[in-house]
Specification:
There is one protein chain. With 344 residues, this protein is α+β, with helices and mostly antiparallel strands. The chain has 2 domains: 112 residues, Immunoglobulin-like (Sandwich), CATH 2.60.40; 202 residues, no CATH class. 46% of the residues lie in helices and 15% in strands. Strands 1, 2, 3, 4, 5, 6, 7 and 8 form an 8-stranded mixed sheet that branches. The longest helix is centred in the middle third of the chain and has 24 residues. It is elongated. Keywords: Membrane, Signal, Transmembrane, Transmembrane helix.
Length: 344
């Protein structure tokens, strides 16, 4: 009888151990802007120590610092916040797992299943039970509001560009109706970056549930294109630019000089669009304002300087068939149209 009881107890103990070893991991939920608590096996250390802990998802360190123990002696609290600036390269893989597109892991594109653990001050994993983070990229209503605001912002800029003089050259004669003015490449680029920064800032604000800090990168870009716009305006004034008696054409005005399509204008326009799309991609996939390397900023600077340099020397058509210095100085038409567009 005793032998039978011992065998039964041994079998029961084996079953309990087997069940424990196959226990389902603890599940926690969170989205950007939320505080989550990741359980650990040991007691939560002092605040000065736990603040050096960081969050790990799917084996990759996010760089998110711990907030404290949150009143639980066996859990570490983290604020899922990516607003501290551009994501460092060593943390990019973790943020791609959390917010990047396209998504190929467990769960859907917006609701993802990720393993969660804690890294100590030395970067090594802290022992803890298996934990699954059901990560919601952002709440559905926040995304919906952000999309509506983005569409409204773009529509506003398009409407103002078509119905007002916002994107038009001023020229030397400010009395010319705006419908007869040509479109300005410099002003269009300023409007492009203003719309991008507004959409990005509002998107971060709604996705994170809090007001994000404005990093230096948007300020640098806005400053660069503002200086470019002021310089282009100065060139127009110095050359007493006038407007041809033809209907303005948006893309033709942006990409052409007197001889037709100009490589320096096309180059400037392409670089502006590409870098702007890179900016938006960074914001939408990491919820942080990007930090471009110095070479990217130099590329924009060189492109802008080339554009201004060519703009100051662009050949312009005359109002008659006689080429005189007085005509060039006082009666020059805005570059962007061929000589056939200028009426004698």
């Amino acid at each position: 009888m005793k032998l039978f009881c011992r065998a039964a107890l041994t079998l029961l103990a084996s079953l309990l151990l087997c069940t424990a070893s196959h226990a389902e991991p603890e599940v926690i939920q969170g989205s950007l802007g939320d505080v989550i608590r990741v359980p650990i096996t040991a007691d939560c250390p002092a605040q000065s120590v736990v603040r050096q802990y960081t969050l790990i998802v799917d084996g990759n360190n996010t760089g998110i610092p711990a907030q404290g123990c949150g009143g639980d002696p066996h859990a570490v609290s983290f604020l899922l916040d990516g607003t501290s600036g551009a994501v460092p390269p060593e943390n990019a893989a973790a943020w791609h797992r959390m917010t990047g597109f396209p998504w190929q892991g467990n769960g859907s594109a917006l609701a993802r299943e990720l393993s969660a653990s804690v890294a100590g001050a030395d970067g090594k994993s802290v022992a803890g039970p298996g934990t699954t983070l059901l990560f919601t990229w952002s709440r559905a209503w926040r995304i919906a509001v952000a999309v509506v605001i983005a569409i409204a912002t773009v529509a506003l800029f398009v409407c103002l560009g078509a119905k007002t003089a916002m994107l038009r050259d001023v020229g030397a004669e400010t009395t010319v109706p705006f419908q007869d003015r040509t479109f300005s490449l410099a002003r269009t680029q300023m409007a492009w970056w203003t719309a991008i920064i507004v959409v990005s800032y509002v998107f971060e604000w709604l996705a994170l549930g809090g007001v994000p800090p404005l990093s230096a990168q948007p300020l640098v870009l806005m400053g660069f294109y503002s200086v470019l716009g002021v310089t282009a305006r100065g060139v127009d004034l110095s050359r007493r630019t006038q407007f041809p008696p033809t209907t303005p054409h948006f893309f033709k005005d942006l990409t052409s000089d007197e001889s037709g399509v100009a490589v320096h204008r096309v180059q400037m326009l392409i670089f502006t669009i590409v870098v702007g799309l890179m900016f938006l991609n960074q914001v939408f996939t990491t919820c942080t304002m990007p930090r471009f390397d110095i070479n990217t900023l130099l590329l924009l600077g060189i492109s802008g300087a080339t554009y201004i340099g060519f703009k100051t020397t662009e050949a312009q058509p005359k109002t008659d068939g006689v080429a005189t210095s007085e005509d060039m100085a006082g009666e020059a038409f805005k570059s962007g149209y061929s000589t056939g567009d200028a009426h004698p």
